[in-house]
Request: fold
Amino acid sequence: MLAPVSHILPLTLIRRERLLPIPGRVVVRKGQKVSATDVVAEARLAPEHMLLDIARSLGLSREKADQHIVCKAGSPVAQGDVLAGPVGFTQRLVRAPRSGKVIVAGDGQVLMELDAPPYELRAGLPGIVSELVGDRGVVIETTGALIQGVWGNGRIDFGLMYVLARSPDDALSPDQLDVSMRGSVILASHCASAEVLKAAGELPLRGLILGSMDSSLYSMAVKMRFPIIILDGFGHIPMNSSAFKLLTSNNRREVSLNAEPRDRYREARPEIVIELPAPEHVSAPRETDIFSPNQVVRILRPPYEGKVGVLIKVRSGRTSLPNGILTQVADVKLENGETVIVPLANMEVLA
Amino acid sequence: MATSLIDADSLLAIDVGSINTRASLFDVVDGSYRFLASGSALTTAHAPYFDIGEGIRMALDRLQVITGRTLIGADEQLILPSRADGSGVDKVCATLSVGQPLKIVAVGLLEDVSLESVRRLASSTYARLMDTINLTDRRKTETRMDTILRIRPDLILVAGGTEGGASQSVLKLLEAIGLACYLMPQEQRPDVLYAGNQELKPQVQEALGKLANVTFAPNVRPTLTEEDLEPATVHLASVYRSVRSRKLTGVQELDAWAGGGLIPTATGFGRVIRFLSRVYDQSKGVLGIDVGAFSTTLAAAFSGELFMGVHSQLGMSANLTQVFDLSEDGELMRWLHLPIPPDDVRDYLYNKSLFAGSLPATAEDLDIEQAIARQLMRLALLKTSEGFPARVFRYGPQLTPWFEPIFASGAVITQAPSPAHSLLMLLDGLQPTGVTTLAIDYNHILPSLGAAAATNPVLAVQVLEPNTFVSLGTVISPVSEAKPGTPILRVRMLQDDNSETALEIKQGSLEMLHLPIGKVARLELRPLQRTDVGMGAAGRGGGLRVVGGVLGVVIDARGRPLRLPEDAVQRREMIEKWRWALGI
Reply:
């Protein structure tokens, strides 16, 4: 059976394609070094338009109005620029109500695209621009530690990481956050309190990495201005030991957070990157796998959610779970030595 | 439904769902078409594969192992047609539900006439209605255009104008669409499906033909009082295929295998339900429900008239967090039989959204999962039934009309720990009235039969024999105003071996009469307290022939609508009693 794969790796080659949803403009060059928050491309995602009825404004038929339109499709116009006229005794004019660009002019009308800040696509990770993808984006490459999460609030930032997690399952309290952590990224195991997020926002932090978070904080977390990445899920789930060991061993290093929400149909998921120098031939991790013995797996659902173990055997046929459901399972040896039965549907390979 | 065999082609049916891809094989056995086996694998439309072909290939591998029949040749291609050595298949049919729901903008003249029809048309496939435009829309043309540009819809559905009716106002509505299409990059322009006043087709083609891929369908509102969605749903299925082909790798190849006949899974499902409604008792409808990971599909048909509701916001995983929003306070919690705190239920919903294909492995998770299924079915039925015609009989506005039979599928139902779990979920979620049979489509073949019917109707008819599906049993759901505990019905069951079972049914109870699967018995019903058992009038009794299912005959006298106690402890005790009655 195909196995979903998550990466929690101390050193690997990371290669990410960063693309605009529509054609736009790439603003970096090949070989350029970028940080996670650098803009790499921009586009007008949702431009605002204005349709000006020139014929009505000039009191002319559409055909006659066309003879008095003085702007051309594609030309930029500033607020107050004359678009049509003058006409008649009173020298009637039609001026641009705002600055922008003329899209279409004719049939007695002018369609303008109004100036507005473009949508900016950020790098999402530090590295070198290794490839330009036409007018859509770039490919960025780096080496370092890679930790993939399961949920993110959509923000991107980077900063020095302070490890506040004392164990994989202790809850972060507001009094653990002080002004010395301003502008840093905090690693904690669990967040159960709105006060913590409030305090983090007031500092402000530049990122929060959590093993788990109460789902009641979901709406608040989405609104926070700094990236929040959850590694294991909602509720009180201890942080998986692989991520805990790797992250706590990188205290006070610069980490980059791309809290992009997971999207099945794009190669998007929240990620933490700690850029590290690497020998020349470090390779990229494999993205696909089939469940097989000796794999390190992470369990996603109760009763062993967040636990890491080694897959001992994929059982043939279907096995009955304690709740009566029949499904394909594997024997997994947990880190405490206990061997448990886990549905294949409830685990992923850590690679 | 015996039909003579006129075409002996073997058939491979491939269904690509959001989580699983299934390959099912049908062939002739003893002179009649039969479902032989199916193989399934995870769907590979998403990262890191981005190609449904991989999942199809693995499902076919599995099917080869199960059947021992070679389907893939040495060249790694599907063997099509079959060869003399028995390898390969003669025909392929395909259904598809994977992918993000189509983003649709609906355009109609009048809010409660053509726009309403377009809304209903949109709800017949995997779609999300993002915005509507109609005559009373006060937004400026450029604002409508910007809205379309912001949404970047996959499809714009346009209706309006009865035959020979309005024209200029319809064309006026198209201005914003034309401008928006003009401004979009070519590869991102939406498809346009026009199903309005047919006299306007040349003008619509003139206005939009060079800017977008325009498809014309017969008018969904030929007159003000008449709605005809069916021809447009065929065109909509075709547009769906075209959009999916552009967005998902492997769809084109699958469609080519199927001779260009790939259809949305829901369309195939609806087609079969409509067909069955012509075959079964015409005084009742036929109902089908498929509770999927990313949508719940409900198809109800009355004498050949189909009502579809594909509820893309009601799925067992990715959209679960919306179930809380769509449910009134406590509606989801009331189905739980274990004392699970609301916060834990909420955490479950969010985690299930993260891990769509995961399974409940504890008793608590199973309880939450089944509560969600009940609530999804309830919401889907209430929403879809708003469109049921007035002529359809029902005991009250919120009550389920008579259906016979009811078909159900979806992993939460088919993979439940026991048939009793499935039955109780269906009774709670659908709350049938009168006399009905509940049947489970364990192999999810109903949509495939709908797709197959287009090229091989004989196969579809023969495979639709009752023994293809697992009958959970005949269910009698009396409707009564009596107080709980009051006797409302006397039942006598006479079996062929002259054995007799008699029961007095009390209001509020759930009872099971043992009748082995496939065995026929005569049931005599004598309602008390003016109870209605679906014999034509309140208090009217009579006899009927019933066929035993996995759970025999079930009498659900818990009341319609089913009212659960407000007190959580009492409620859980009551649910526990009902579970015990079914042997759970």
